[in-house]
Amino acid sequence: MKSRTWVLLRRLMRNIMRSPDTIITVAITPIIMMVLFVYVFGGAIETGTDNYVNYLLPGILLITIASGIAYTSLRLFTDVKSGLMARFITMPIKRSSVLWAHVWTSLVTNVLTVGIVILIALLIGFRSNADILDWLAVVGILSLFTLALTWLAVIPGLTARSMEGATAYSYPLIFLPFISSAFVPTETMPKIVRAFAEDQPVTSIVNSIRALLYEGQVNNSIWTALAWCIGVMIIAYIISNKLFKRELG
What region does 165 belong to: left with phi over 0, alpha with psi -120 to 50, or beta? Predict the structure, then answer.
C-alpha cells in the first residue's frame, strides 16, 4: 500500500511542481498580512512583547495552513469530477491509498509554504531562542493541525457540486485565528468574545507554539491543542472514508 500511495503522491507533486504558483499564491496572503500587521498596526497593539512579529507568527502560520488545504479539496474535487478517481478505484490498489496520497501531498506542500513564511518572518525581525526539541514539537503540532484540516478538506472535496463549493469551507478556518490569541491577548476582548476566543482550538494551538518558540516550556494548553487536532482528525477521517465509499462505491 505504501508504494502505491507513494506513486499517487508523486503524480500529485509533479502536477504541483509544474505549476508552483499554487504554493506561491498560498504564501503571499499570509506574508502580506504579516507585513501589514507588523509595520502598520504593530505599534498600536499591546501584547506585552518587544517584537510583535514574534507574537504574531504562530497565528500567521495557522492561517497559511488553512489557506493551503483549500487546494487539497480542489485537487480532490477535480479528480472526482474528471472521472479519474473512479478509474483509480477500479485498479488493484487499496482505496485508502487514493485519499492518503492527497493528504500527504497537502502535508508536503504546506511544509514548503510554511517554510517560505518563516523565511520572510526572519527577514522582518523574527527571532527565537527555541532549541531543536522545541522546534520539533512545533513541527509536530503544525503537522497534526495540517492533517486535521486536510481530512476536513477531503469531505467537501468528495461531496461538493462546484469548484467554489469545494474551497469555500476554508474561509471560516482562515478567519478563526482573528478571534483568538493570535493577534492580540484575549484579555483585551469583550467578555462574550473572550469566552469564545479562549475556548476555541486556535487559541490553545497558538499559545502552545508561542510558548515553545519563546519560553521553552508549555502549560496545559498543549494537551488541549493536541486533543483538538487529534479529535478533529479522527472524526474527519472516519467521515471522509464513509463518504468515499458512498460516493464512489
Answer: alpha
Q: How many Å apart are CA 48 and CA 222, to the nearest integer? A: 21
How many CB atoms within 10 Å of residue 114? 23
Q: List, in order, residues 6 or more apart from 207 with CB less than 8 Å away.
A: 181, 221, 225
Please give the Cα distance from 99 to 237 (Å, whole number). 10
Summarised one tens digit per residue, pLDDT across range 168-224 is 877 788 888 999 999 988 888 999 999 999 999 999 999 999 999 987 677 788 999
Show the cell assigned to 130.
527555541
This prediction's pTM: 0.88
Name, in order, each residue with C-beta under 8 angstroms of 117's C-beta and a sequence gap of 6 or more: 27, 30, 31, 34, 60, 61, 64
User: What are 137's three cell numbers?
Assistant: 514539537
